Amino acid sequence: MELFQAKDHYILQQGERALWCSRRDGSFHLRPATDLLLAWNPICLGLVEGVIGKIQLHSDLPWWLILIRQKALVGKLPGDHEVCKVTKIAVLSLSEMEPQDLELELCKKHHFGINKPEKIVPSPDDSKFLLKTFTHIKSNVSAPNKKKVKESKEKEKLERRLLEELLKMFMDSESFYYSLTYDLTNSVQRQSAGEREPCPLWQKVDDRFFWNKYMIQDLTEIGTPDVDFWIIPIIQGFVQIEELVVNYNESSDDEKSSPETPPQESTCVDDIHPRFLVALISRRSRHRAGMRYKRRGVDKNGNVANYVETEQLIHVHNHTLSFIQTRGSVPVFWSQVGYRYNPRPRLDRSEKDTVAYFCAHFEEQLKIYKKQVIINLVDQAGREKIIGDAYLKQVLLFNNSHLTYVSFDFHEHCRGMKFENVQTLTDAIYDIILDMKWCWVDQAGVICKQEGIFRVNCMDCLDRTNVVQAAIARVVMEQQLKKLGVMPPEQPLPVKCNRIYQIMWANNGDSISRQYAGTAALKGDFTRTGERKLAGVMKDGVNSANRYYLNRFKDAYRQAVIGERA
């Protein structure tokens, strides 16, 4: 779609539709495309992919309009639904008067005409784009009143840091996804149980995972059908979609592919081997969002930090099978305060004062998922013990038959880099996994439903949690494929399928870890390869040091961006 800058408006136009955003008060208005003739000196800035919303990072700072500048196709879900990743954004100050050079893809219709922006200087990287964008905003803040230049230096510094974090959050983490035709916020089971009446996509979404809900609120409140075209629900999390081939004749050494990029097997494998599509979709809650040491435990609404629902989706012929798990911080009031490398956890409220909020959290969880199996991976000795003990006490006080509590001291069982001992846990809960089932739908409707979920946690709900969730999901996937006749009853997953599957879960862990802690996941080498090696331990040391640096010097600004958005 084309983006125009006029005297009083930014104008987005596609076909016969146009969305006008006022530069005076930030309000949105739907108008016919022909009204562009009525705008005062409209200048075509280039092409964009869609609207994310508006944001004001501080009450003294201007409003910014956030647009999708560039996207990348992740893949297609069953039903030919395209899923895209936001790779670059454009940030427009609503108070900037001069035409902004946002380094957008040029519009072939206009950029040779009289409406071409006066100066377009391509920049080789996003850092120059960032500095250029900030220069526009900085000059605009200072120009109206020269007397305030000295007084506004600190504000300008804050503004620059917040803008940097906003851009990095989108461009560096690569953790924002959307689909124009598929509801990424809802699992297959929730979609199959939804209303059959035709309804705009954004009105069906799960509110917990509608990341840009408040940024787009002015649009959703317009209330006319024409506005549906402009509203794009965005999730923060992770999506990867792959086609796997069940071939037991291939060797593990057939292809030397990068651990980051799975081999494209569909182009070189004979048609006699069964194929299936596997997708991993993680949805991070917009509630109690934030960085690791800035957001821990539960809040007064029963929301917990780093809450993520992960759905593993299998599609074979006309059959779609879905299995979901969640992760989330221990739902008591706790924190880690200070600038030590690993601050000691502490409880911030008494057992009695915590009960109501713990209950609020699990009452909502049971309302959504019916049953919960808690898998608590925190250490049962040492500094983590205080959090694990508080968790168990609250579970006993809650005393609900639909809540099952399983404790597994990950570090004790996997001491000496023996992460394969996670199988001890999956073997112990194997019957629970089978009883929980999974969602299974075909063209005729729902064949069976998943009855309950696993809620896995460690301290950060990152590294240990991802290893265990991947192990549980693998047990489920093998059962699903055997049920569908894709795998023989007594055979494990073929080597190449297993390798790609491991890579997907490792990528998932890295993505969620970057969103919460700022670095890739620790213990990722085991999830990625099935082996724990010295090189992986050394890499974990580097990532741990980076996490400390980010927490000490950077997380406050990222938290400010996240907090103001919500």
From TrEMBL:
BP-aspect Gene Ontology terms: phosphatidylinositol dephosphorylation; regulation of endocytic recycling
Regions that span the bilayer: none
Top-level taxon of the source organism: Eukaryota
A Pfam cross-reference name: Syja_N
InterPro entries: SAC_dom
GO CC terms: clathrin-coated endocytic vesicle; early endosome
Single GO MF descriptor: phosphatidylinositol-4-phosphate phosphatase activity
Coiled-coil residues: none
Occurrences of domain SAC (ranges): 167-518
Name the UniProt record assigns to this protein: Phosphatidylinositide phosphatase SAC2 isoform X3
Species annotation: Balaenoptera musculus (Blue whale)
Gene: INPP5F
